[in-house]
Amino acid sequence: MERRWRPPRPLDVDATLRAHRHGAADPAYRRAPDGSVWRASFTPDGPGTIAVAADAGEVVARAWGPGAPWLLDGFPASLGALDDPASLPIDTPAMARLAARARGLRIGRSDRVWEALVPVIMEQKVVVTEALRAWRYLLLRYGEPAPGPVELRVPPPRERWREITEAHWHRSGLEPVRMRIIRNASAVDVETKADKLTVLRGIGEWTAALTRARALGDADAVPVGDYHLPSMVGYTLIGEAVDDAGMLELLAPYAGHRYRVIRMCELYGRAAPRRGPRLAPKDYRDF
After folding, report:
1. In CATH, what class is 2-102+112-218?
2. At what angle do helices 229-237 and 258-268 cross, to 10 degrees?
3. Which residues in the chain show pLDDT less than 50?
4. What are phi and psi of 64, to 5 degrees?
5. Angle of helix 258-268 versus helix 93-101 axis, rounded to 10
C-alpha cells in the first residue's frame, strides 16, 4: 500500500522521525542508504511496517501488514502535519542560528503511547547504552518479525510484555526496579491516558513528558530531571551550563515550544565540555 503527501513547509524526514529511534541497532527502526526511514509498529489493527522517503517535494510512504492502512492514515501526523512551529520566537542570535539549522524539524506523533513509554522507562536513571541493549534484546526475543521486505522486529504489544520471564528480564540487563515498573504499567491500557501517566507507580514527570512528546507530538513537554539536557540547553542558548531551574528559565520565553527547543538543542546544539570520565554502564546480568 502507498500514500503520498505534500508537506506545507520544508520537512526533514530523518530528523523528525529520529525521536523514535532507540540506538543505531534498534530492531524496530532503520534508515536505509537511500535516505528512507523504516519503522515497525504494533498498531491497533496488528503488526505493520512503514517506509517513508522524501520525493520531489512530496513524502511517499509504503506500508505492509495488517497495520498498513492505520500507519498510512497517520503518517502525515507522524511527520508533524499537526505541528505548527511558526509561532516559535526567534529572539536571540543563538536561537536564530538554531532555528536556521532546524528548519525542517517537526514534532510528530506516533499515536502509540505504550511503544513510546516502554523505552523511556528503560532509560530511567541509567546510562543510555544499558537501555538500548535491553530494548534490542527484548525485541529480538519477544517481538515478531515485521511484515515487508526489510528485516525488522515489531515491538511486542502491551499484553506480551507481561509474558516476559524474569530470566529474560535479567538477561536483557534491566534491574528489577524498571522490570516492575514496566510490568505494572502493562496492566493498564495507557493509549488514552497519556496525560495521566504519573499516577502509575515509578513514572514521574521526566518519563511522562518524553512519552507525550513522542506519542502525542507535545511540542511543549519538558523532561525535568534529565542528567544531560540542562547543560546542553544552557550551552546552546547562553554558552554556559545550567541546572533544571535554569533550563526552565531559559525555556520560559518559548512556552508552547519548549520541547521543540530541547529537540533542536539535542540535534543541532552544543554539548557541555566533558570534565571527567564517562559514567560506566552497569551490567546487571552479572548480579
Report:
1. mainly alpha
2. 80
3. 279, 284-285, 287
4. -135, 155
5. 70
Give the residue from 210, 194, 117, 184 showing the smallest Cα distance to 156.
117
Angle at 122 between CA 121 and CA 123, to 5 degrees: 90
Distances (CA, A) of 101 to 95, 104, 187, 266, 278: 10, 8, 42, 12, 28
Structure-derived torsion over alpha carbons of residues 192, 67, 26, 6, reported in degrees to the nearest 10: -90
| pTM recorded for the entire structure | 0.92
CA–CA dist 68, 50 (Å, integer) = 7
Supply the pLDDT for residue 265. 96
Q: Look up residue 130 and give its three cell numbers.
A: 544499558
pLDDT digits (tens, 9 = 90+) for 90-110: 999 999 999 999 999 999 999
Q: Domain coordinates of the chain in residue numbers?
A: 2-102+112-218, 219-274
74 phi/psi in degrees, rounded to 5 = -100, 5
Using DSSP's 3-state secondary structure scheme, residue 42 falls into strand
pLDDT of residue 282: 56
How is 196-239 classified by DSSP, letter by letter? GGGGSTT--HHHHHHHHHHHH--TT---TT-SSHHHHHHHHHTS
Specify the 3-state DSSP secondary structure of 3. Answer: strand
- DSSP helix/strand/coil, 49: strand
The partner residues of 60 in beta bridges, in order of sequence, read 4, 53
